[in-house]
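Sequence in, structure out. Go.
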Amino acid sequence: MAGKFVCSKSKDGQDFFVLKANNGQVILQSERYKSKKSCSNGIESVRKNSQDEGRFETKIAKDGRSYFVLKASNGQVVGKSQMYKSASGCANGIKSVATHAPDAEVVEA
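Output:
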């Protein structure tokens, strides 16, 4: 059950990636990176850290919706989810990242 990491450039020329589930839905978006190599390192960090439940942190937005962030071992956020209407939807998003990230192919947008 593999998803894919889609690498893109932002309007300001920085690199970023999204992790898409096999149904095409974006389940995680990275920060922006100054180099393609740093972006690739971010993908590897997601692959590794997504396998440790303790690296996910669930948060509540001001409007009451849930989202999660994935942190590296140094505490730095390497990815952020979409907003979810329910805590159970957010939990399913975490499971989806853990399932799809390890074997996801990397493609350029």
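Check: The mean pLDDT is 95. The longest strand covers residues 4-9.
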